[in-house]
Amino acid sequence: MSLASLEDLFLQELKDIYDAEKQILKALPKMAKGVESEELRSAIEEHHAVTEKQVERLEEVFQMLDKPARGKKCVAMEGLLKEGSQLLKEDAEPEVLDAAIIAAAQKVEHYEIAAYGTLATYAEILGYEDAKELLGETLEEEKETDEALTEIASTINYEALEEGDEEEEQEMAVSRKRNR
Ligand SMILES: [Fe+2]
Prior knowledge:
Blueprint: H1 6-34, H2 38-64, H3 75-88, H4 94-126, H5 129-179
Helix pairs in contact: 1-2, 1-3, 1-4, 2-5, 3-4, 4-5
The structure holds fe (ii) ion (FE2).
């Protein structure tokens, strides 16, 4: 039985998020390259550095449990990141694409918030005080990142909105000419 105890489940969830973080590390530079907004790009780049630290923290937790740091393919993160990379291939107005990338990034953050929240709770129940501390630290960082993205979205969503208006005006001008 691979899941005979909460301890087993804790380890399995650790492996899941460890793999998820590694996938994120690979995906972030492509995302950063694809966005228009400088502010968004630097937020993504900063998150890359933060994610590197989060991976190290997970490795520390594995060490505390006396287990090898090994991931188990996180299929959910694979799907979320695939959606993000597909967005980059769309024929999109840059501001609208930026809004879409923020949405994709926040979906990733919420997956991580759920994962680290659960892991911190399990660590506490299992009596792993130090692991709980480390996982809680990362949980807070993920929440901060999510809030930072919401903040950036509060400008970019409106830029995307204006972009749509401009497009509509141009189309109307063209059809006015045609109707003359
Ligand atoms: Fe993370």
